[in-house]
Amino acid sequence: MPDFIVQEYYLNEEPPREMETTIKAATAIDAIRSIKFWKHATQFTCVKGDINRQAHTQDLNGRNGCNAEMKGN
Fold first, then answer.
1. Separation between Cα atoms, residue 41 and residue 32, nearest integer Å
2. How far apart are CA 61 and CA 30, in angstroms?
3. CA-to-CA distance for 60 and 73, rounded, in angstroms?
4. Distance CA 16, CA 49 (A)
5. Is the pLDDT of residue 72 over 90?
6. Averaged pLDDT of the chain
7. How many domains is the chain partitioned into structurally?
8. How far is C-alpha 3 from the geometric centre of its chain's CA atoms?
9. Residue 73: its pLDDT value, please?
10. Cβ–Cβ contacts within 10 Å for residue 55, how many?
11. CA-CA distance, 72 to 9, in Å (whole number)?
12. Rounded to whole angstroms, how far apart are CA atoms 27 and 50?
């Protein structure tokens, strides 16, 4: 399985926080869903053309989100 760089941001928290981790997963969506907070995410976007290699999701107000991108992409 490839490595994904997963970036989380939580702007609703005080102070806001951002985290970056490397996760082994089959797809970018699987990498995002492996994080407890994002386990049930259902809506994903892709800005780099291949949803399996890069994906992003966010909460309803857009202040918390998570992006995964295949390492070396």
1. 8
2. 23
3. 28
4. 29
5. no
6. 94
7. 1
8. 13
9. 62
10. 27
11. 22
12. 10
Residue ranges making up the domain that contains 37: 3-70
5 and 22 Cβ atoms separated by less than 8 Å:
yes
Beta-carbon contacts of residue 51 (< 8 Å; ≥ 6 apart): 27, 28, 29, 44
* Average pLDDT over every residue of 58-62: 88
Place of tokens 């995964």: 68
Higher-pLDDT residue of 62 and 6 is 6
Would you list the DSSP string of the chain?
Answer: --EEEEEEEETTSSS-EEEEEEEE-SSHHHHHHTSGGGTT----B-SSS-TTTEEEEE-TTSSEEEEEEETT-
